[in-house]
Write a structure and sequence with these properties.
The protein has 116 residues and is mostly helical. The protein is built from six helices and no strands. It is globular.
Amino acid sequence: MARTFEDFWPIFLSYHSDRASKNARLLAGMAGAAIVAAGATKRDARVVAVAPLVAAIGPALAHLRSASHRELLWLYPRWAARAEWRLTRLSLTGRLDDELARHGIFSDADIVDVTP
């Protein structure tokens, strides 16, 4: 069990290191950010309030595929939300692969199949 967010972060990263997961989360995070921008532009707090829900729908649906992922989401909902935004930021800035490597986690893009 994670005692701090910093304990939780590598666990979260290991569950989200495959390319499909990273892309889905990036898309969801970008959709949430776009909604925040639209709400801020229109000065409509209701639109801004919807952004976290939209950003969380994709990852929440993805977590339904795996019991361990569901457990992670429900045991640590605030940390999971924080980690989703951190993952999005790292993806957008091109630093996610470095963060994965820093924790000794390799994505599926790093694996080379040498079987004939």
